[in-house]
Design goal:
The protein is an alpha+beta fold. The chain folds into three domains: 6-66, Roll (Structural Genomics Hypothetical 15.5 Kd Protein In mrcA-pckA Intergenic Region, Chain A), CATH 3.10.290.10; 74-138 and 223-244, Alpha-Beta Plaits; 143-220, Alpha-Beta Plaits (2-Layer Sandwich), CATH 3.30.70.1560. It has helices at 6-12, 17-23, 29-37, 129-136, 158-162, 200-207, 239-244; strands at 41-43, 60-62, 65-66, 74-79, 110-111, 119-126, 144-150, 180-183, 188-193, 212-220, 223-224, 234-236. The longest helix is centred in the first third of the chain and has 9 residues, at 29-37. The radius of gyration is 22 Å and the shape is elongated.
Length: 249
């Protein structure tokens, strides 16, 4: 089954192949024109395509490979430790885990919210601004669930404190929304957030005298991180999976 949706194909029926490849990050328009002239852009039967040829995005091949997924695109990544979510940050970023041309896509690919450098797990990325804001908006109902491993044993009242609706973080004047809490063991717990303040889970546990050793996001809304998706790997999210983000109950 093609990764290119019918709606995306309809949008692109009249698009010249130069613009298509440039938008997917294969190069500037001049670079794409040179790519086409070199003869490496073909249809699926190996016929060399010219700048004015367009058999359909699902039929185009570059160096024998299918095109990258078209816009609108949503991908799920299992973010490893040590990677930041911004191209502007020094050191390793999540964009280093994607094909280099993904950073040149137009529209650009951005993370849907962020995970801290030392937080791992489920991260969504998209080039669809409307979808991005729909997910991160407080009214979306997309709860975020994290697995926290702690330095010291749980003291027993974390659920009541975190779920009170009166819990204040240091230097803040607005209480946190009630957070869900489930103890998994002496030093492990699941935290469910309705919001996403700066270093929120780590600051919550610090406020009750504990320290988060490791933190992993395992779900957003009804969309869960697949156990088979290894750290550093990613895949395209289907429309059916995207709908799980907003599923109720």
């Amino acid at each position: 089954m093609s990764r290119v949706s019918r709606s995306s194909l309809l949008k692109l029926l009249r698009m010249k192949i130069v613009k298509l490849l440039a938008n997917l990050g294969y190069g500037s328009r001049k670079e794409v024109e040179k790519l086409i002239k070199s003869g490496v852009v073909t249809d699926r039967d190996g016929k060399i395509l010219g700048a004015k040829d367009f058999p359909g995005a699902d039929l185009v091949r570059v160096l024998g490979e299918e095109l990258d997924p078209l816009s609108p695109l949503v991908i799920m990544m299992n973010k490893p430790d040590g990677y930041t979510c911004s191209n502007d940050d020094p050191g390793a970023t999540i964009y280093d885990l994607l094909p280099p041309r993904f950073s040149k896509r137009n529209p650009s690919l951005n993370s849907v919210g962020r995970l801290d450098k030392d937080t791992t797990g489920l991260l969504l990325m998209t080039d669809d601004g409307k979808f991005l804001h729909q997910v991160i908006h407080p009214k979306s109902g997309c709860l975020k669930v994290y697995h926290a491993t702690l330095d010291r044993p749980l003291r027993g009242d974390e659920g009541a404190v975190f779920g009170s609706g009166q819990f204040l973080l240091e230097s803040e004047v607005k209480p946190l929304l009630p957070a869900g809490f489930e103890a998994l063991g002496e030093k492990d717990a699941l935290i469910t957030l309705h919001e996403g303040r700066y270093h929120q889970v780590r600051r919550m546990f610090a406020a009750v005298g504990n320290h988060v050793v490791s933190l992993k996001r395992i779900s957003i809304g009804g969309l869960k991180l697949p156990t088979e998706l290894a750290e550093g790997e990613w895949h395209v999210v289907s429309d059916e999976k995207k709908a799980l983000l907003f599923a109720k109950g």
